[in-house]
UniProtKB/TrEMBL annotation:
Keyword Protein transport set for record: yes
Localization (cell): Cytoplasm
SMART domains xrefs: IPPc (SM00128)
Originating species: Maudiozyma barnettii
Protein name (Swiss-Prot/TrEMBL): phosphoinositide 5-phosphatase
């Protein structure tokens, strides 16, 4: 294939194959539409004649792999060079991608230039330093480098994403219709093109497949060795495919996600082919399918399980159900050791299998535990063969795929799979998979009498080649996941471990530590960009008028397939000062008893371990487990069951995420992140731990922070806040602001700008308005008003006494020599138009020198009914066709119906005569061609008018201003010959091949600057209100709960109130508890003295009785 460019009358790029061309151009649909869009045409190659196309590159391209938008520029991705590395069977070849190129559709800056390894254009006869000054770095340089690193493969003649057993021997299986999307690494870039193809008729689909326009790229390994089994010549191949569903580097991708995808999931197929028989055996590997992580510590990173068994079980079951459906019974081979760092994870793995109600142990799933380190400690790696007796029966039952090449029939099939894992699923896993593969292969050779049973073949050439294949395979998978070759590869190749091999392994281990800590974040960013996972990253859309109509109507009718509901959230923050004494937490977690049972509970704890130098360096994470248990016991004291979905701990900071069991299915994409700010970012005594998740279609983020201490260190606290705000990054590069609802909670350490005596006097006298008078000097309030921290955030009306610092076990403020000034260090603030605060107070727990603080919220969440949305989409397509009968009856409308017509889809056949100047897809009926001819004669449309997505009208192209040495398809200014050709429908002879390409001189044109993406900051500072209900008998609220909806202290009266759906009140007359002596007084309608705002505008309260809370029936 070749790639050509035409700049007149508009910029277009054509990918030309043997007979056809795919023409793509960027378009601007509407100035208000920000989505990157382009139009696409499939035409005969001859129709490009006289269109002024110039060859863009001197070499051919090997494949088109998709479209991607970067910095508002749309690029076409192509394979520029490749090398044949494998041929599993005759007629099937696998090629490794050596380099890729990206051609811009809407900018000419990088036209006709080669790009160096750093991403800068290379100008002939220029110094390298001048190049970087003259032209900017290519926006796709990092993805280009990723795709060219030798780990990506493709095939032009068979479906590389499927196994030999599934696609069949000798079958024509290049169609993208049957591809396993899980292994298609360019699925994001190619998604719209595949959708375009799906809308075509079968003939046009076949053209796209046969011409090789759509290339599927996998990531993994492929290699073929030719050898002999005795006198029989055989070709041995390994093809390995890594899933992109949970792709990432070693410490950035661990365990399972909420869609039941695991990290480093790799399907490996070993194939042997000879003239008589073909053999294949498949194995898989993947991270343990529970929610676990490891930090990137240089030495002995600790395994942390982040979700409870009950909450993990549905995802665990779903993962294995998918495997069983695809492969048959799954035999798990767990290689984790019994040492402390892995034993907990290994136990959890087995317990999840044993306690599953959907998986039948020893039937659907088999389990073998093999402590690799223990078994090989004495005898070396050769002792790994001890695993074979444990799995042999299962291997013989599941079998292998065998095909008789002479008789052309299947002899046997593989029904079952071995799923092997260690911690990283790399070194140990590769060695055990190699042993299992060799045993299965020997079984086949004996069954088909290539060798006799009992023959010694361990040193034969085919065995050595088999070992070399697996060693190369292990190195590549390890390179993808860790950046280094596999450990133990010396043994894999030679069957013994030498001193040089051991030294090499030590070097690789050190390299892994460096790469994991200093390089993996950048690599993860590039992977996420390739897969379309970066925030605000959008797939390039293909222009489609019908699809635009449907999309617009879907937005207008959003209410018909979405629903809004409310969930109750309880947040709590508590600096526990290293306490480990068990206490009843009910006054904190259930401040009004079982009258309010939240759906989601988020608790942030600080100083769970004592802040000493020793404890900071060697954090005792068992303290976190102590608090997990105590909180879980308290939450589950009533009939509702709460599940622990996530724990995130960093040194002395911990955040816990619990959810009601009946709401757990609504929670998706739970993640955690940490940021150290202590000692300049080196220690975790200060900083933040964060959790984010999505409840249906609404995203939430919670940050538990502990900022710098000291009365005068306001600037340090500001720096900590900014460091956390910028440093907390979740997967797919999500940041804190990119969520619908955000909460900051924790020990902020902000103090009161008054003397100790002044503060204590106010607290002792308790005169009217004393809380407000103190808050007027509160550092956090002043900083938020100034907009220096927490811009756009709000805090409900604060009516409780300072929470710091008390004498332990008493209600007395600090009486020590330091006599610290009482302050509100423990705070909870929020941002989100869907949030309605219900309560904000402290709790009378005397466990620490702080008091715990809680806040209750009602959050509106959005739910999308996907089946209803699909049904509406079909209806809108049909409605469009009804309203536009002429357009609906045309070929164009048939090609954009998304396959929604079913049996009504009209078949089309190719006419015997193919006019050269007519596009392939305009050949439905002769009368349509006559109409096209008439239109062309009148100058309305271009002679290349085809079934274009944009339906654009192209005028006579102007000759582009290029160097005369360029290869140019000739242009003729006279339209008459082309019109006559179209009218007579006589084919025009194909033009002769273009002359050899000559590198053009540097074009004299200005360099087009890259437009930065405009980031729009939105602030949500509206007051919270609700619709008043009918008057009811006033009931005194319990401690910490106001009789009216809490008004944010730093809110704006001009902001709209959040939309929160109303809830039906129960009919029972359960009386709420009366306020305690320490309870603050309830506010009445209007603005109370204790409700403060950040501007001069005073927002009145909306009266709302406590009956707005839904009373729950006591157990």
């Amino acid at each position: 294939m070749n790639i050509y460019l035409a700049e007149q009358p508009e910029r277009r790029i054509a990918i030309i194959s043997k007979e056809y061309a795919l023409i793509i151009k960027a378009i601007k649909i509407d100035k208000n539409v920000t989505k990157p869009s382009c139009a696409i045409e499939l035409v005969r190659k001859e129709s490009l004649t006289n269109q002024g196309f110039t060859r863009l590159t001197s070499s051919e391209i090997s494949g088109f792999i998709g479209l991607i938008e970067v910095d508002k520029l749309i690029f076409i991705a192509t394979i520029s060079s490749s090398a044949k590395v494998a041929a599993p069977i005759p007629g099937e070849t696998v090629k490794k991608i050596s380099s890729v190129d990206f051609f811009c559709l809407n900018d000419q800056t990088w036209d006709f230039f080669d790009i160096d390894s750093n991403g800068y254009p290379i100008l002939p006869d220029r110094d390298a330093n001048d190049i970087q000054v003259t032209l900017p770095r290519h926006p796709c340089a990092d993805i280009r480098k990723l795709l060219s690193n030798g780990s990506f493969f493709y095939s032009s003649d068979f479906d590389l994403t499927s196994t030999l057993q599934n696609r069949g021997v000798g079958a024509h299986s290049l169609s993208t219709d049957n591809f396993e999307q899980e292994y298609m690494w360019n699925s994001f870039m190619m998604g719209e093109i595949i959708t375009y193809k799906d809308r075509l008729d079968n003939e046009a689909k076949q053209i796209l497949d046969d011409e090789g326009f759509l290339t599927t790229v996998i990531r993994g390994f492929a290699e073929t060795f030719v050898t002999h089994v005795k006198s029989v010549k055989v070709a041995m191949t390994i093809i390995s495919k890594q899933s992109w569903k949970r792709a990432g580097t070693r410490f950035n991708a661990r365990g399972v996600d909420d869609e039941a995808n695991v990290a480093n999931f790799v399907e490996t197929e070993y194939i042997m082919y000879c003239n008589n028989y073909c053999y294949a055996f498949t194995e898989i590997r993947g991270s343990i399918p529970v929610f676990w992580e490891q930090d990137t510590s240089l030495i002995n990173p600790k395994v942390q399980i982040t979700r409870s068994m009950e909450a993990t079980q549905p995802i665990f079951d779903e993962h294995f159900e998918k495997l069983i459906k695809r492969y048959g019974p799954v035999h798990v081979v767990n290689l984790l050791s019994t040492k402390s760092s892995e034993i907990e994870l290994s136990r959890r793995y087995y317990n999840q299998i044993k306690q599953s109600k959907k998986l039948k142990l020893n039937s659907d799933i088999l389990y073998t535990a093999f402590d690799f380190h223990k078994e090989t400690a004495q005898e070396g790696f050769s002792a790994v063969s001890k695993v074979i007796p444990l799995v042999l029966d299962s291997l013989l039952i599941s079998g292998y795929f065998a095909y008789d090449c002479k008789a052309k029939k299947v002899m046997s099939e593989q029904h079952g799979i071995f799923r092997t894992n260690c911690l990283d699923c790399l070194d140990r896993t590769n060695l055990v998979q190699q042993i299992i593969s060799y045993t299965a292969f020997k079984t086949f050779l004996e069954d088909f009498r290539f060798i006799n049973k009992g023959d010694y073949v361990d040193e034969s050439d085919f065995t050595l080649k088999h070992n070399a294949l697996w060693a190369d395979h292990g190195d590549m998978v390890s390179q993808i996941y860790t950046g280094t070759n596999a450990l133990k590869s010396s043994f894999s190749r030679k069957g013994k471990m030498s001193f040089a091999g051991a030294l090499s392994d030590a070097t690789k281990s050190v390299s892994r530590m460096y790469i994991n800590n200093f390089m993996d974040k950048g690599k993860q960013q590039n992977i996420d960009m390739l897969l379309g996972r970066l925030p605000n990253q959008q797939a390039v859309q293909l222009h489609d008028p019908i699809n635009e109509y449907v999309t617009s109507e879907l937005e207008n009718q959003l209410v018909t397939y979405t629903s809004r509901s409310n969930i109750n959230i309880l947040l709590g923050t508590y600096n526990v000062n290293g306490a480990t004494r068990k206490v009843d937490l009910s006054k904190w977690l259930f401040p009004i008893g079982d009258k309010f049972k939240p759906d989601v509970v988020i608790l942030g704890l600080q100083e769970v371990i004592e802040l000493t130098a020793g404890s900071i360096l060697n954090a005792d994470y068992s303290k976190g487990s102590f608090w997990e248990t105590m909180v879980s016991d308290c939450l589950n004291q009533y009939s509702d069951k709460y599940l622990l979905l996530r724990v995130e701990q960093m040194s002395s900071l911990i955040i816990l995420f619990f959810v009601k069991s009946d709401k757990a299915s609504n929670i998706k994409r739970v993640e955690g992140a940490t940021k150290k700010t202590g000692f300049g970012g080196m220690a975790g005594n200060k900083g933040a731990v964060a959790i984010r998740f999505e409840y249906d279609s609404t995203s939430f983020c919670f940050i538990n922070n502990h900022l710098s201490a000291g009365v005068m260190n306001v600037e340090d606290r500001k720096n900590d806040y900014e460091s956390i705000q910028n440093g907390i990054i979740f997967s797919r590069s999500r940041t804190i602001p990119q969520h619908d609802s955000i909460f900051w909670l924790g020990d902020t350490n902000y103090r009161i700008n008054l003397t100790n005596e002044e503060v204590r006097k106010e607290l002792t006298l308790k005169d009217d308005g004393y809380i407000d008078r103190l808050l007027n000097h509160d550092q956090l309030t002043l900083e938020m008003k100034a907009g220096t921290v927490f811009k756009g955030f709000r805090e409900p009306s604060l009516k409780f006494r300072p929470t710091y610092k008390y004498d332990n076990g008493t209600n007395n403020y600090d009486s020590s020599e330091k006599a610290r000034t009482p302050s509100w260090t423990d705070r909870i603030i929020y941002s989100g138009s869907n949030l309605q605060p219900l309560a904000y107070s402290d709790a009378p727990l005397l466990l620490s020198d702080h008091r715990p603080v809680f806040a209750a919220y009602r959050a509106g969440v959005l739910t999308i009914d996907e089946p209803k949305k699909i049904e509406l989409t079909k209806k809108l397509y049909n409605d469009y066709k009804t309203l536009h009968p002429n357009e609906a009856s045309s070929l164009s409308a048939q090609l954009v119906n998304l396959g929604l017509e079913g049996d009504e889809f009209i078949g089309r056949t190719k006419p015997p005569t193919v006019p050269s100047d007519i596009s392939l897809l305009d050949m439905a009926m002769r009368n349509e061609l006559n109409q096209t001819s008439s239109a062309s004669a009148s100058g309305v449309s271009s002679p290349t008018s085809s079934l274009s997505r944009s339906n654009s009208q192209i005028s006579e192209p102007l000759q582009p201003k290029r160097a005369t040495s360029n290869t140019v398809i000739p242009s003729n200014s006279n339209n008459s010959s082309r019109v006559a050709s179209m009218t007579s429908l006589k084919p025009v002879l194909r033009p002769p091949p273009p002359p050899a390409y000559v590198k053009p001189a540097l074009p004299d044109r200005p360099v087009a600057p890259i437009e930065p993406i405009e980031k729009k900051e939105t602030s949500d500072t509206g007051p919270v209100s609700s619709t008043p209900r009918e008057p009811r008998k006033e009931i005194s609220p319990p401690p910490g709960f106001s009789s009216s909806v809490l008004t944010p202290r730093n809110s704006s009266a001009s902001s709209p109130a959040p939309v929160v759906s109303k809830e039906v009140l129960p009919t029972d007359n359960t009386t709420k508890p009366s306020p305690s002596p320490q309870s603050p007084e309830s506010s009445s309608s209007g603005t109370s003295a204790t409700e403060r705002i950040s501007s001069a505008t005073v927002t009145p309260h909306v009266n709302k009785s406590m009956s707005a809370w839904e009373p729950l029936t006591p157990k």
